[in-house]
Amino acid sequence: MIAALLLAAAPALSPGFGELCAPCHGPGGRGDGPAAALYLPRPRDLAVEALRNGGRPEDLERTLREGIVATGMPSFATLPDEERARLVQDVLTLRALGDRAPRRGPDALWPGPPLPALAIGADLPIFATQSAHACGRCHPRAFEQWSASRHALAFGDGLALQTPDAATALAESCRTCHAPLAEQSTQPELRREGVTCAACHRRGGAKLSRRPPGDGRATGLPVQVEPDFGRAVQCLPCHNLPLEGAVAGKPLLDTFREWAASPYLPARIPCQTCHFADADHRLRGAHDPEAVRSAVTLRVAQTGQTPVAEVSNVGAGHAFPTTATPRVVLRLRQLDAAGAPLAGTEVLWAIGRTVTSSDGGRHWTQVADTRIAPGETRRWPYDVARAADARTLEAELFMYPDWFYAGAFRARAVDDPAFGGVAAETAGSGFRVTGVRSPWPRAR
Ligand code: HEC
Ligand code: HEC
Ligand code: HEC
Ligand code: HEC
Ligand code: HEC
Ligand code: HEC
Q1: Which of 207, 211, 234, 281 to mutate to test the pocket of ligand 4 (most atoms within 8 A of CB)?
Q2: With contact defined as beta carbons under 8 Å apart, do 396 and 330 qualify?
Q3: Thinking of the domain 289-439, which architecture would CATH place it in?
Q4: Which sequence spans correspond to the domains of the chain?
Q5: pLDDT, tens digit (0-9, with 9 covering 90-100), for 296-337
Q6: pLDDT digits 0-9 by tens, 69-118
Q7: Residue nearest to atom 42 of ligand 4 (CA)
Q8: What ligand is nearest to the CA atom of residue 209?
Q9: Other CB atoms closer than 10 Å to residue 63's CB: what's the count?
C-alpha cells in the first residue's frame, strides 16, 4: 500500500526535492527525513501542517528564498529561479496529496544500530567474510586507501583501552559508530577494522553503490544503487549526535547540521565531494596537512592601530575545526631583521571548541567556541607594543588533530601505564599549517 503510494507520488516531484529537501522533510515531505530529529522546531510536514508564511506560490517562493531564521530551514536563495519554482511546485503537489503523500519507508542505508547481520554470499566463499581484506582482493586501490584512513583506525588502541569489556552497554554504544556491524560485536579481529568497507557498502546480500557497475560485469554480489549513497545523509548517523545531551545548544558532534546550515547544501556539495573525490578512500581531513591547508587562509591586516590576524574558512564544509577533538593554534610574534623571534612578543590564540567534563563524560560544559563557520572570517587582534628591533610580524597556524584525546590519555597514563603508548601517539600528530610575515607598518 505504502509502496504503491510511493510509486504514485514520487515521480511527480522534481529530483531536487529528494536531494535538497528530503534529508529533513522526508521523501514524501511528511517531516520524517533522516535528519528530522536534529531540529527543534521539527521540519514541517509539508503535506498537511499549517504553514506560518502561508501556502500561496509567492509565499512558498519567499520561504525558500529567505529560509526561516533561527530554525533549521535553510535559505535557497542561491538556486536558479526556475529550480526554486520547481520546488515550490513540489510543495503544492504534496499539499494537494495531503494525507495521501507517502511517509518514509524502511531505511535501506541505515536499518538501525547495530547494522543487521549480513547474508553470506553463497556462491563465492570470499563473501562469507565481512573483512576488508576480502574486498581488497578485487578492489586493491580502495583497500589500500582505506587502510591508510582514519576509518580503518576507528577502533584503534585508544578505543580498545577505553572499552576493555566489549560486552558492556558503554562499549556497545561506542561501537554504533566505531565498529557498527553486528558481526563486530563478537569477532575481535573484525572489530579492529573499525569503519570497514561493509559498514558503508554492504547490506544483506547486496553491495551498495551510487552507480551501477560498468558494462554489467559480474560483481560477486549484486550491486544495489541507493539514491542516498553519496549524499551527506550517508555520513549523518556517525557524524552527528542527537540533540539530547547537546552542550550549549550544540551536540558534541554536529558536523551534518553545520554542513546543512552552510552554502554547501544548496550548492549540492555533499561531504563526499571533498572527502571521497574520485572515490579516494584515504579520507583526508584534520590529520592531513594538505587537506587542512585547503580549508583556511591566513592574512595580517594592518589598516588600524592594532594589527589583526584574519583566518577564513574557505574550504571546509562545516565549522573549522568541526569537532572538539582538534585544536588549531594561531601564533603571532615579532621577528627581527634576521627573522629571529623577539622575546616577550609571542601571543597564542586557540581556534576550536573547548568543552570539559568533571564526571567522566556524563555532563559537559562549554568553555569557549572560537571555531570558524563555512565561508566566515574571524579576526584576532595583536596588541603587543612593537619591540625596538622588530621588522616583521609573523602569523602562523598549527593543527593538533588529537588535542583533546592527547590530554585525556596523558591524564589516564598517570595511573595506568597501558595508556602511555596512545598518549605519545596522539601528542605527536600536530603539524604547521601555514604562515605569513608582514612588514611592520611605519609609524603613523
Ligand atoms: C536542514 C533541514 C531542512 C532542509 C534541508 C529543508 N528544510 Fe524546510 N524546514 C525545516 C525546518 C526545521 C522547518 C520548520 C521551521 C519552523 O517551524 O519555523 C522547515 C519549514 C519549511 C516550510 C514551512 C514554512 C512555513 O511557512 O511554515 C516549508 C514550506 C519548507 N520548509 C520547505 C522546504 C523545501 C521545499 C526544502 C527543499 C528545497 C526544504 N524545506 C529544505 C528544515 C529543513
Ligand atoms: C555518533 C557516533 C559516535 C559515537 C556513538 C562515539 N563516537 Fe567516538 N568519534 C566519532 C567521530 C565521528 C569521531 C571523529 C571526530 C573527530 O575527528 O574529532 C570520533 C572520535 C573518537 C576518538 C578520537 C580518535 C582519534 O584518534 O582522534 C576517540 C578516542 C573516541 N571517539 C572514543 C569514543 C568512545 C569511548 C565512545 C563511547 C563512549 C565513542 N567514541 C562514541 C563518532 C562517535
Ligand atoms: C565511510 C564509507 C565508506 C567506506 C568505509 C568505504 N567506502 Fe567505498 N565508497 C564510499 C563512497 C561515498 C563512494 C562513492 C564515491 C563517489 O563516487 O563519489 C565509494 C566508492 C567505492 C567504489 C567505487 C569506485 C569507483 O571508482 O567509483 C568501490 C569499488 C569501493 N568504494 C570499495 C570500497 C572498499 C573495498 C572499501 C574497504 C576497503 C570501501 N569502499 C570502504 C564510501 C565508503
Ligand atoms: C571476487 C571479486 C570481488 C570481491 C571479493 C568484491 N568485489 Fe566489489 N566488485 C567486483 C567487480 C568485478 C565489480 C564491478 C567493477 C566494475 O564494473 O567497474 C564490483 C563492483 C563493486 C562496487 C560498485 C562500484 C563500481 O565499481 O561500479 C562496489 C561499491 C563494490 N564492488 C564493493 C565491494 C565491497 C565493499 C566488497 C567487500 C564486501 C567487494 N566489493 C568485494 C568484484 C568483487
Ligand atoms: C559507521 C560510522 C561512520 C560513518 C558511516 C562515517 N564515518 Fe567518518 N568517522 C567515523 C569515526 C568513528 C571516525 C573517527 C575515527 C578515528 O579517528 O578514530 C571518523 C572520522 C572521519 C573523518 C576524520 C578524518 C580526520 O583526519 O580526522 C572524516 C573526514 C570522516 N570521518 C568523513 C566521513 C564521511 C564524508 C562520511 C560519509 C561518506 C563518513 N565519514 C561516514 C565514523 C563514521
Ligand atoms: C567543501 C569541502 C568539505 C565538505 C563539503 C565537508 N568537509 Fe569535512 N573537512 C574538509 C576539510 C578541508 C577538512 C580539514 C580541515 C578541518 O579539520 O576542518 C575537513 C575535516 C573534517 C573532519 C575532521 C575533524 C575536524 O574536527 O575537523 C571530519 C570528521 C569531517 N570533515 C567530516 C565531514 C562530514 C561528515 C561532512 C558532511 C556532513 C563534511 N565533512 C563536509 C572539507 C569538507
Answers
A1: 207
A2: yes
A3: Sandwich (2.60)
A4: 2-100, 125-229, 289-439
A5: 999 999 888 899 999 999 999 999 999 999 999 999 999 999
A6: 999 999 999 999 999 999 999 999 999 999 999 999 999 899 988 898 88
A7: 219
A8: 4
A9: 21
